[in-house]
Write a structure and sequence with these properties.
Elements lengths: L1 H27 L4 H11 L3 H15 L4 H26 L4
Helix pairs in contact: 1-2, 1-3, 3-4
Length: 95
């Protein structure tokens, strides 16, 4: 079951990242739509670059504030850090 949830979450993040990068190049920089799709496909899959460009597309193209845009693209890391913290707090008493 966790693999299915992880698969869906991965592709949901990948699609929103692609859309954010496409919005940045297509709408904000006003590039040709075909070129923006190719660039979004190439750069959207690179973890740090895709995240930065996705956040720029969300803030400048969609009109989002910075914190919600960061939460949209960094939520897997936020959840992971929270799970590590909770795991460390619950395992502290056992040793």
């Amino acid at each position: 079951m966790m693999r299915i949830i992880g698969f869906i979450a991965y592709w949901a993040l990948a699609i929103t990242q692609f859309l954010g990068v496409y919005t940045y190049f297509g709408d904000v920089l006003d590039w040709n739509g075909f070129v923006a799709v190719i660039i979004a496909l190439l750069l959207g899959g690179i973890p740090i670059v895709g995240t930065i460009l996705g956040v720029m597309g969300a803030t400048q193209g969609w009109g989002w504030e910075l914190v919600p845009a960061l939460c949209l693209y960094l939520w897997p890391f936020i959840v992971f850090v929270m799970l590590v913290i909770v795991s460390n707090l619950t395992n502290r008493d056992r040793y």
